[in-house]
Specification:
With 73 residues, the chain is an alpha+beta fold. Strands 1-3-2 form a three-stranded antiparallel beta sheet, covered by helices on one side. The protein starts with a strand and ends with a strand. One of its GO terms (cellular component) is plasma membrane. Keywords: Kinase, Membrane, Phosphoprotein, Transferase, Transmembrane, Transmembrane helix.
Length: 73
């Protein structure tokens, strides 16, 4: 589990957020090295390759994003 205290990802955008090269904040300067939108896509692909899944939600503890990689038993 990874959690943060940032703005999170609204439920309606979570499916879009895991697509490659997706960046949800167009206001950020695209040329400042702040990422290219691959992190969540890679995490999802790695989880699936090992029989798991990536679940995104809201962190009850910190208020931002909560990301869980879940593996079947």
């Amino acid at each position: 589990r990874v959690e943060d205290d940032g703005p999170g990802i609204p439920a309606a955008l979570r499916e879009e957020a895991v697509k490659p090269f997706t960046r949800l904040e167009p206001a950020r300067n695209q040329n400042k090295g702040s990422g290219v939108g691959l992190g969540l896509s890679i995490a999802m692909d790695v989880a699936r390759a090992h029989g798991g899944s990536l679940r995104l939600g809201e962190s009850a503890r910190l208020g931002g994003l909560q990301a869980d990689i879940v593996f079947a038993r």
